[in-house]
Every structure is written in structure tokens, then in C-alpha cells.
Amino acid sequence: MLRRLQTHLLGAVLMCGLATAAQAQTPSTAERTEALEIYRHIVSLDTSIEGGQTPAMANYLADRFRAAGFPAEDVHVLPLAQTAGLLVRYRGDSSGGRPVLLIAHMDVVPARRSEWERDPFTLVEENGYFFGRGASDNKAGLTHLVQTFISLRRENFRPTRDLIIWFSGDEETSGATTMALLGEHRALIGDAEFALNADAGGGVINPAGQALYALQTAEKTYASYSFTARNQGGHSSAPREDNAIYELAAALTRLRAFQFPVMHNDTTIASFRAEAPLDQTPTGRAALRFAENPGDRAAARTMSRNPYYAAQLRTTCVATMLSAGHAENALPQTATGTVNCRVFPGVALADIESELRAIAGAGIEVALIAPANASDASPLRADVMGALSAALRANHPNAVITPYMSAGATDGLFFRAAGIPAYGVGGIVSADEEDNAHGLNERIPVAAFYEGFTHWRVLLTTLAGRN
Ligand SMILES: [Zn+2]
């Protein structure tokens, strides 16, 4: 769902100098033609929850993988209710270690033909852009993975470790296909060491021509709770002390005053270090002091006044919806508030719930509205940073990387929750910030689309090749 970096990262600074400059290997004409054909076909399939063509997409891609020489026993379409997932194993010789997962999603957010300027389910190339639903989120990144697998296989590239593609079929809705993979079909991914996500991470080119890349290494967990006060009610002409609306209001007022403890991880410290020097406000200076000493309470207090920094410092829970009462002349029998939390990586949801119960008090029922997955931040790994740096520099020699924690959510969080670190390392870097993922007239620059093939080729051959 959330792919490109936040605008505040536009000023980001450098992180890593581990990589050697990779030879830029631009895709051949044949490769571009084949990739465009695949991209065009999968955009034509309406893989939204309404369109229902995700199984058709999984089968189409499975055919392409088999036609490119992947043995049938390594290509698995996994149907689940109205959708499906696709898993493809590219066998290596294991000399390079445990398998690496490569993830993307096949489904898209619905798009109405009547509201779009062009047919959302026809890939249109115009004025240097590809337009279409999924053109950016996530069918471009997915095509990068498909074509890179097919091309490497044809070249007889033998990875030093297994590379396993996982394309989910419902990332934009329930995430059930990925949960099923990690539950019922866990054997298919073996002892995978980490996952690279084509649906997160990405870069922008600033006006000075520098590529600024945000590497997603953590996501806050999205969890909503209901606060409910109940009362026997009665006639409003004879009010009593007890009143469901006042009790709920008092509980939400206590929540307003409450702050969860300050936390930090590798990712947030690295991102403060990268961003803060460019922010000459007292908040920016405080963030820099916090990065040097996360025990600096005064710095944390200053940062807490800024909503962006506050969200990076701790779990947040905020009232977002209310409903109460049944008649203007009756004492309310129920009053319910919705509280939306973004939970800091590594915090157990049970801890959040018991904290909320304590804040709400005995008279208020607190309940989790829908199941949520808590996840840890993924550690910054030198091998992933090095390979990403090489991949970026193949297209953008002056690229700089900063890690970031997003407020959720992508499939990466299911893998993190299952103990598999996940890194958003998508191959799209462009000066165009208006990709309109999820919105009208979704698009991606044509040049950025083609550069993505070089990005993934360098990533995979660095992590699973003989250097
Ligand atoms: Zn997405």
C-alpha cells in the first residue's frame, strides 16, 4: 500500500558506502519488449477485489515462468477463496547461504472507468508515462521481478542460494494469502533468511539531480480499538450522575493526556541522523541530540510537539470516530469511540490493550476491532545495504540511502511478524512524486520503469552471485 518515501525525506543524506560501483547493465531490447508485454497483460487484468482476476494473473505468470524453463514443481499457484498467491523457486547451489524471498502483490485497489481519463485496465504510454491501475502499485515492481527471473534463467545464471518469489493476492485488503503462506504453506519458503519487498522503498530525484532513496526496514502496526460505555438509559428530563456519553468522553480525555513511552530502533536513529541536519528548527536540533543520546528526555519532549517526529518516537493512539445515543430526549444506552493506534515495532499488542484498559477505566469496554499483526523492526544488514547501494548506483551514481519506518502497511509486516526480516527495496526512482497509487490516473515514468530491471538484476546478482 505504501510505497514511495515520505516527502520529509526529500532532504535526506547518505548512509552507506559499502558497495563497489556496479556495472550498469541496461535491459536489452528483447528484454524490454518481453517485459512490456507482460506488464501490459497484467495491467489489463482487473485484480481488484471487485474484478476478481487475480487467479487469472497468477496462472498467466505461472505459464510464463514454466515457459522460461522453471520446472513445474517449483511453480506453485496457491488458490485461496476468490484470490490466489504465486510462489516460484529459483534453485541455487546453496553455497551462498539460506534462501532469499522476493515479494510483491498482484492485487490492486479498485478503479472506476468512468472516473479515469483513460481506461484504468489498459496500459497507456503517453508523454513519458505509463498509465493504468497498478502501473505503479505494484505491477511495475512485480514485472521487474518476473522479467529478472526469466532473463537470468535464460542466461543460465545459477544463484548461490535459492531465490523465492512470493506474489500475494490480497495485499490491499486482508493479507490472507500471505498469512496462509506463512501458516499452512511454510515449508515452501523453507528457512528463508530475509525478504526483499518490491512494494516498499523507493527514491525521488531532487531538483539538484540527486537520487534520494528511502529503504523501508520497519512498519508500525495498525490496530484499532473500540471504547464502549453502556448504561441503562432513561428519560432525558430526569438526568442522573451516570451517563454513557460523559463516561466515554472522560475516558477519551484521559487518553488524550496519555503518552506511550519513548522508543527507538536502528531505523529511527539512522533516519533522524540523516534528516535532522537539514532541519534547522529547534525540532531538528532536538532530533539530532536524540539520535546521539536516545535517553535525552528534553530532546524527546521537543520532538513530541511535531506530529511527524512524535509518530517516529512512540506508539500513538488517537480517537478517530464516535457514535452514541439513540434519541435526543433519551439518556444514552451506549456510547462508542474508535481509537486508532500505530504501534511501535516490537511492542506486543497485548501490552497496548492492557494500557488502554487502564486508561479507559473499569466502566468502559475496550476491544480490538480487527486482528492486527505486530512486528519487529528489521535490523540493518550490511549485505542488503551493500547490494541496494550497488543497485542504485547502477542507475544513479550519486544515490544516497536512508532507512525509514513507515506507519504501515505492506506485506512486509507479515514476514517480520513471522521472524523473517523484510526490506522495502523497490526499483522505482524518479523525479515524479505524483504516482497517484490508489488514486486516479495512476502512473509511472517510462524511464523509471525500465531502470527497475537493472536495479533488480544488480540486487539479485550481488546477493546471490559469485562476485
Ligand atoms: Zn502496494
Automatic annotation (TrEMBL):
The yes or no answer to whether the keyword Hydrolase is present is yes
Q: What is an annotated GO biological process for this record, any one?
A: proteolysis involved in protein catabolic process
Q: Which UniProt keywords apply?
A: Hydrolase, Metal-binding, Protease, Signal, Zinc
**What EC number(s) does its UniProt record assign?**
3.5.1.18
Which ranges does the record mark as transmembrane? none
Q: Which Pfam families match?
A: M20_dimer, Peptidase_M20
Give start-end of the signal peptide.
1-24
Q: Where is the Peptidase M20 dimerisation domain?
A: 218-361
Q: Which GO terms describe its molecular function?
A: carboxypeptidase activity; metal ion binding; succinyl-diaminopimelate desuccinylase activity
Q: Which InterPro entries match?
A: ArgE/DapE_CS, Bact_exopeptidase_dim_dom, Pept_M20A, Peptidase_M20, Peptidase_M20_dimer
Task: Quote the Gene3D superfamilies the UniProt record gives.
Answer: 1.10.150.900, 3.30.70.360, Zn peptidases (3.40.630.10)
Q: Which family does it belong to?
A: Belongs to the peptidase M20A family.
PANTHER family annotated for this entry?
N-FATTY-ACYL-AMINO ACID SYNTHASE/HYDROLASE PM20D1, N-FATTY-ACYL-AMINO ACID SYNTHASE_HYDROLASE PM20D1
Name of the protein in its database record: Putative succinyl-diaminopimelate desuccinylase
